[in-house]
Protein: Winged helix DNA-binding domain-containing protein
Amino acid sequence: MNVLTGHVLNRTALARQLLLDRVDLPAATAVERLAGLQGQEANTPYLSLWARLRDFRHDELTRALEDRTVVRSSVLRGTQHLVTGEDFGWMRALMQPLLARIRQSAFGRDTVGVDLDELAKAARETLAGRTLTRPQLRDVLAERWPGVPPLSLAWSAQMLVPVVHPPPNGTWNKGGATPFTLAEEWLGRPLEAEPSRELLVERYLRAFGPASVKDVQMWSGLTRLKEVVAGMDLRAYRDESGRELYDVPDGELSEVDEAPVRLLPYFDNLIVAYDDRSRMMTAEVRKRVCVGAVIYPTVLVGGRVRAMWDLVGKRVLRVETFGGLSTAERAAVTAEAEALLDFAGIGDGEVAFA
Structure:
């Protein structure tokens, strides 16, 4: 097998994640190519696309959510993601067993004695033809199952029944109570009856490969993908530590020298998509960036994580470096940070280094 250096793996990941050069793509097309975007926080997908698309504007993604080309729902790893409407049908169907396990682990004790099929049916009937917030759904279900913690009923329903969260919730700077509507009604079609795990692996590799089976499993939340990968027509490599990696047959590798500065938001694709994140950062940096379930905003310098950033108060973008930056690197980070502040509507903001 060909051995891929850390440099090649780094540059190839950046290229496939559209982080070597900003590109001209519609927002929905980018979401599809990137195999979805983490959407736990409303602004995160906007910042992820801003780092990747040339002249990206907020209303491009907002319109895609409004016209149902892109939807927001619990998908990969059972967490909130933005995926295209076309991808949701098979992705959510693949994730349903995972969501059921997460539900059992989190709310199984609270819902002992509740017939889950009846709960799912009641949730569907309650949501049919309308959109409700979680508190509204909770209150209706609580009348049916008195004595059961109401929030456990509402969260269980969300994991048992495919729902999406329609806009304006999940659009730029719009939070508040999460609305629910039936995915089949929102998209006008049912979920895939027999979703393909092979398609999931292929889409992952096109967005993040070459990568290991553990990498795919970390990104998706699914397990037992080794046999799926073994049965596919894939190109095989090894990294410098001997791990076996896979890629689509036509996957292009990159080893370009230069990589631009990029500021990535919480839970960005590039950081969460690998079990082994050495192509992006050292083990010491990973301990600072990946803390429990949180992935902090990062700064790429020379293609690797060299700092973290965050907004402090209403107008200061604070950069915390790992090991210091050269004068030229600080200037490049400052320029990109100022551009992010402009995108966020903080035109009088300032950049501060720690």
